[in-house]
Design brief:
single chain; 339 residues; alpha/beta; ten-stranded mixed beta sheet; 8 helices; 10 strands
Length: 339
C-alpha cells in the first residue's frame, strides 16, 4: 500500500491503493529522481507504480527529491520546485530506504559532472542513515567510484535492449526469482566484474555474457546497485530509441542510433530498418510516428521487478523490526539498571 503525499492526477486511476496520509508504522522511501526533463515524470511514474505493486499491504510512504545541480529547463525546474522537496530536507528525514536514479552523463569522468558533490554527499549520508539504498545505472557507477575508486569503462556500443540475466547467489533480495529472466538495459558504460569482486561487492545477477546486472555491498546500510532497469515500462526502450532518432535528425548526435535488441517483433524491425535507410539516404520524414511499432513480447520483466522490490521492502521492514527490538532491550536494560 503506497502512501504518496503528492500524487499527480495521472496516477489516480492506476494506483487504487494510494492514499494521502502519514503513518508512523509505514516504511519511508525517498526517491532522488535525477532524470532529465523529458524522462522526469515517466521515471517517477515507473517507481510509483512499481512500489505500489510491490508493497502489497505493507504501508510505504514515498518522498521525492532531486539533485539541484542536474541541468534543467524552465519546465523541469518548475516541476521540481512544485512537487519535490529540497535536498537539504533529506538529511533530517526519517528515511528507511533510498532509491537514486541516474542522469544523462555529460562528461567522461563522473567526478566532473555538475552534481557530483551533491551525489557523493547523498552516498555518504545513505551509508549512515538508511537501512538500504538502491543505486540505479549512472548512480550505481558514481557510487562505486566514490566508495572504492572503481571506474566505469566505455562499451564498444550502447547496451540497449532486453537482455537475459541469471542468478549468481542466494540472497533475501532474490528470493522467489526464477533462475533466469530478462531485464532492460540502456547504457554506454560498464563496471568490470573483476573490479567489483576485488573491492568486496557480491554479484546477485549477471548478464549472459558475464557482465554485472545487479550487485550488493553490506555495511550499516545494505547498498544495492543496478546496471539494468527493472522499473522500465514496456514502451520505455521504444521511446528512448525514438528520442535518439530525433536527436540524430536535429544534428545532436553524429551516428544513427542502434535499435534496441530483443524489443520489437520482426515486422517492426523490418520497417524500422527501412526508416533508417530512408533517413540515411537523406529523405527524413517530416516527423517521426508517435509509435514505432509493436514490441516483440509483453513485459517479461514486470513480475521479476515486483518480486525484487517486494523483497527489498521486506528487508527494510525486517531491519526496522530488528532495530526496534534492539532499542526495546536497551531501554529495558537501562530501566533495570536505574532500579
Amino acid at each position: 500500500m503506497l502512501l504518496y503525499p503528492s500524487r499527480p492526477s495521472s496516477y489516480r486511476n492506476s494506483i487504487e491503493n494510494a492514499r494521502v496520509m502519514d503513518a508512523a508504522d509505514s516504511l519511508h522511501i525517498a526517491l532522488v529522481n535525477n532524470m532529465a526533463d523529458g524522462a522526469l515524470e515517466a521515471t517517477e511514474r515507473q517507481y510509483v507504480e512499481l512500489l505500489a505493486a510491490a508493497s502489497g499491504d505493507l504501508p510505504v510512504r514515498l518522498s521525492l527529491f532531486s539533485l539541484p545541480q542536474v541541468p534543467r529547463g524552465e519546465w523541469g525546474r518548475s516541476q521540481i520546485s512544485r512537487r519535490y522537496a529540497a535536498l537539504d530536507e533529506l538529511w533530517n528525514s526519517d528515511v528507511d530506504g533510498l532509491i537514486v536514479t541516474g542522469a544523462e552523463p555529460r562528461t567522461e569522468d563522473l567526478s566532473n559532472e555538475p552534481y557530483w558533490q551533491s551525489l557523493t554527499e547523498v552516498v555518504d549520508w545513505a551509508r549512515e542513515e538508511t537501512a538500504s539504498a538502491v543505486w540505479s545505472c549512472l548512480a550505481a557507477h558514481a557510487a562505486v567510484q566514490h566508495l572504492d575508486g572503481i571506474r566505469r569503462r566505455p562499451l564498444t556500443g550502447k547496451r540497449f535492449g532486453i537482455f537475459p540475466c541469471s542468478l549468481q547467489t542466494e540472497h533475501a533480495l532474490t528470493a522467489g526469482l526464477p533462475q533466469s529472466f530478462s531485464i532492460p538495459h540502456s547504457r554506454w558504460n560498464d563496471v568490470p566484474v573483476s573490479d567489483l569482486q576485488a573491492s568486496g561487492y557480491h554479484l546477485l545477477t549477471c548478464l549472459e555474457d558475464g557482465g554485472a546486472d545487479a550487485w550488493i555491498k553490506g555495511g550499516r546500510s545494505l547498498f544495492l546497485f543496478l546496471q539494468g532497469h527493472p522499473e522500465y515500462e514496456i514502451n520505455t526502450l521504444e521511446l528512448e530509441y525514438r528520442r535518439d532518432i530525433a536527436r540524430f535528425l536535429r544534428g545532436e548526435r553524429r551516428t544513427y542510433p542502434s535499435m534496441p535488441v530483443h524489443s520489437f517483433e520482426p515486422e517492426t524491425e523490418r520497417r524500422l530498418s527501412e526508416l533508417e535507410a530512408t533517413i540515411l539516404a537523406g529523405h527524413a520524414p517530416a516527423e517521426l510516428p508517435s509509435s514505432l511499432g509493436r514490441t516483440e513480447h509483453p513485459n517479461l520483466w514486470r513480475a521479476v521487478a515486483i518480486r525484487f522490490y517486494a523483497n527489498w521492502l521486506e528487508t527494510l521492514r525486517d531491519k526496522r523490526t530488528a532495530a526496534a527490538r534492539s532499542r526495546g532491550r536497551y531501554l529495558c536494560a537501562a530501566s533495570a539498571a536505574g532500579d
